[in-house]
Design brief:
Layout: H1 2-11, E1 16-18, E2 25-27, E3 36-38, E4 61-65, H2 72-80, E5 98-105, E6 108-114, E7 125-127, E8 130-132, H3 134-139, E9 141-149, H4 156-172, E10 177-183, H5 193-211, E11 221-226, H6 232-242, H7 248-262, E12 264-271, E13 277-280, H8 287-307, H9 338-351, H10 364-367, H11 385-393, E14 401-405, E15 410-418, E16 421-428, H12 435-453
Parallel strand pairs: 4-6, 4-9, 9-10, 10-11
Antiparallel strand pairs: 1-5, 2-3, 5-6, 7-8, 12-13, 12-16, 14-15, 15-16
Helix pairs in contact: 1-11, 4-5, 7-12, 8-9
The chain binds guanosine-5'-triphosphate.
């Protein structure tokens, strides 16, 4: 089931454009002349993406750079194609620029550019028979994620590379954010948190020292400890994506108002497909709360994959299609008090198949309309019919909602608030007594969000 769900989700992310095997870039008429359309075989896939959309150099983009084997492609594949971390062991070397357009919903759309390790930036890089100069690469770039392999011996190669990149990029785009992922902090080498922090401090010092002379002005660096084997890569990448969303402060404000008016402990707005959170309230993000809320999406989608029906679904007694609202009420797992036990409890629930965990589905009669995936997947070389079919069957729509009661007096509340965007909250049971109030406020939140992203009239 998990595989099926993952395949479905993977198909929804967007198409991958590989400079090596795509048709030529056709010059386009972007606002500043930088737009380029894909000649053939491209297309922005994913929910919300239209068919045969152009590859636009005006879209926000995140560049993935770093030394060989540092984990660049693995990060892209795990986050945006739902590749399982273990499968990344079989990835080959990246020898040409590959671009993925991520368009899971209309609110968060960007490109991921995965560079080969040995790119010579001052000369530019070939993509689909066209030379992309540093101006084109960095010009509209929102963030550069530089990946350092923490399991590799501290990396003079990585530092030299970073130095080279920053020297070129500074001239083109002084406002760019540099995100350093201290990656692969997993396994026996990184059992203790203290060791991780020590490694981070070490690398941070080395980076600052290395780049002292590049610019007189301060360069903005953020450092993250990441691994594809846990949630850390999701959390880190979420923070990078936040920098691409101009409406972020307004969304945070809305979430702050929501949690204050409903006495909610923590609220996340998740992109359901990638499981990146695109906004949260002002309370600090505790990784175990994040894991719980993120795992809840898995539970809901797994349940939806089992019980959700698309067109042609069997009919219930009233003649309505059996639809999934995946209301997973009263899911109680073992554990004691506190966040750790919550994590353990839901970890079990999410790890096992949903059918094993006592997930109950709402009365289908109440669940509303049948399930249909919103948006469509554009044709692409790597998206076969089977995967498209699975995406259509992905049961997450306006009706999707779920409630999970934990045995430590906490409730997890999930509600779809826009196309492939879910609000996931943690609420104390005693504060959930006025359920109607929460539902009402969440509906207000949904409407405000809709307003926020409504294109302003010309
Ligand atoms: N332990 C561990 N291994 C990882 C992690 N991320 C990636 N790897 C492994 O690192 C190896 C290299 O990963 P790639 O994604 O191919 O690295 P790359 O930077 O794209 O490599 P090039 O294309 O050669 O530049 C693979 O064997 C991955 O399985 C991680 O978080 N932890």
């Amino acid at each position: 089931m998990a595989d099926e769900r993952d395949a479905a989700l993977g198909a929804g992310v967007g198409d991958e454009l590989d400079g090596a095997d795509q048709g030529g870039l056709v010059g386009g008429g972007g606002a500043n002349g930088l737009d380029a359309g894909l000649g053939a075989g491209g297309g922005a896939g994913g929910p919300g993406g239209g068919p045969q959309e152009a590859l636009s150099l005006n879209r926000p983009r995140i560049l993935l750079m770093g030394p060989r084997q540092s984990g660049k492609t693995s990060i892209q594949r795990v986050l945006f194609t739902k590749m399982s971390p273990h499968e990344t062991l079989f990835l080959g070397h990246t020898d040409s620029l590959s671009i993925k357009f991520v368009a899971n919903n209309p609110f968060v759309q960007f490109e991921i550019w995965d560079f080969p390790a040995d790119v010579n930036l001052s000369e530019g890089i070939m993509f689909a028979d066209q030379l992309l100069s540093p101006d084109l690469i960095f010009g509209n770039c929102a963030a550069l994620a530089f990946i350092i392999d923490a399991q590799d011996d501290p990396s003079s190669e990585a530092l030299t590379k970073l130095h080279e990149i920053v020297s070129v990029a500074r001239h083109v785009n002084p406002d760019m954010n540099y995100e350093v992922f201290i990656h692969k902090v997993d396994g026996d080498l990184f059992l203790s948190e203290d060791h991780k922090i020590e490694v981070q401090r070490d690398i941070q010092e080395q980076v600052e020292l290395e780049l002292e002379e590049v610019s007189d002005e301060e360069i903005s660096f953020s450092f993250y400890l990441t691994s594809i084997y846990d949630h850390s890569i999701y959390e880190a990448f979420s923070k990078v994506v936040h920098k691409l969303i101009p409406q972020l402060p307004a969304m945070e404000n809305l979430l702050n108002i929501l949690i204050a008016s409903c006495e909610i402990e923590k609220a996340f707005l998740f992109d359901v497909v990638s499981k990146l959170y695109i906004a949260t309230d002002h309370n600090p993000v505790d990784i175990s709360s994040y894991e719980l809320c993120s795992d809840m999406i898995d539970v809901v989608i797994d349940t939806s994959c089992i019980y959700g029906m698309s067109t042609g679904a069997p009919l219930n007694a009233n003649g309505a299609a059996l639809a999934i609202s995946a209301s997973t009420d009263n899911l109680i797992a073992a554990g004691g008090d506190g966040a750790a036990s919550e994590a353990a409890a839901l970890g079990d629930a999410a790890g096992a198949s949903a059918a094993d965990t006592g997930v109950a589905v709402d009365d289908p009669g109440e669940a509303g309309a049948g399930v249909a995936a919103e948006g469509s997947v554009a044709d692409g070389d790597d998206v076969d019919e089977d995967r498209e079919q699975k995406l259509e069957n992905l049961a997450f729509d306006r009706q999707s909602s779920s409630l999970i009661r934990l045995n430590n007096n906490m409730i997890l509340y999930l509600k779809n608030v826009a196309s492939y965007l879910a609000l996931v909250c943690m609420v104390r049971s005693q504060n959930y007594e006025k359920q109607g109030l929460i539902d009402y406020n969440v509906e207000c939140f949904r409407k405000a969000l809709e307003e926020l992203f409504r294109p302003s009239p010309a």
